[in-house]
User: Fold Pimeloyl-ACP methyl ester carboxylesterase from Pedobacter nyackensis.
Amino acid sequence: MLKKIALSLIFFCSSAVAVFAQKSDTLSITLENVKYAYPVKYFPISVEGQDVRMAYMDVAPTQMANGRTVMLFHGKNFGGYYWTEVIKSLTGRGFRVIVPDQIGFGKSSKPFIHYSFHQMAAWNKALLDALGVQKASVLGHSMGGMLATRFALMYPDQTEKLLLENPIGLEDYRRFVPYISTEQAYATELKSTAESVKKYYQGSYFTIWKPEYEELVRIAGGVTNSADFPRAAKVSAMTYTMIYEQPVVYEFINIKVPTVLFIGKEDKTIVGKGLLSPDQQVLYGQYRFLGKQTAAKIPGAKIIEFDACGHIPHIEIPTEFTVALLGSL
Assistant:
């Protein structure tokens, strides 16, 4: 009897430790328990009968101000938290830096709405207007590159330069990725775990995995433990549909602002890659070719390529990226 009680206590304690460990790894879907490097403010927006708010950082220059502003647009699986070193470099050279978490991402609201790059661009323009910024250079990474492209197309007079860091959307995914509904994408997103996030990051984003990348996994993976994760998963599915259904690839020729592409040549990102066979996967997402092809479409565009670098140059090769970025500004 005593043995059974002892075993029961051991089991209970082990279970309690496991539950506590899980909770300690849990992050809210609006990242309240993730500290950003700079103060976060909120811009109110009304959309489809809902009051939402867009989180953003507005960071002043740390050296003599040069009167110029850079706006940073994050990728689909990220928020403003991964721009810290870029912000430091830019503010150290006199730039004001504005870093929004797009609606549906990071610390911003996660509403169930029709997600649109046009609408996101309009919200970011409204934010700049509210902050008294008449013109900014816009740096977009990954999905942020699609958004930055749309912003430059809609607001050329407010875009000093368009800076694209391994942007997605350099191909029309509708041509070769099978269509899935938002509900199907939602079912897939619901299966995400911290382990699957790490596996995806290791296989898709970097050429060599380093311990410092674990923080990116901690944030993205921690959200999957939240009781509210189904909402975040649904929004992620909605924004997948936005990317799939709203290509910018046919409009690069219409860009009228100075443009620079920063391309990690080992990037092989395809939105919806898991829906393709291995033989199909090798035919697309080849950034060593896509970068040059895209630069040729944009009037007067320049391209800076990085060898032995994957999808996120500003994280994988921060020094080389910063030198290239500052030189381009």
User: Anything to note?
Assistant: The longest strand covers residues 50-59.
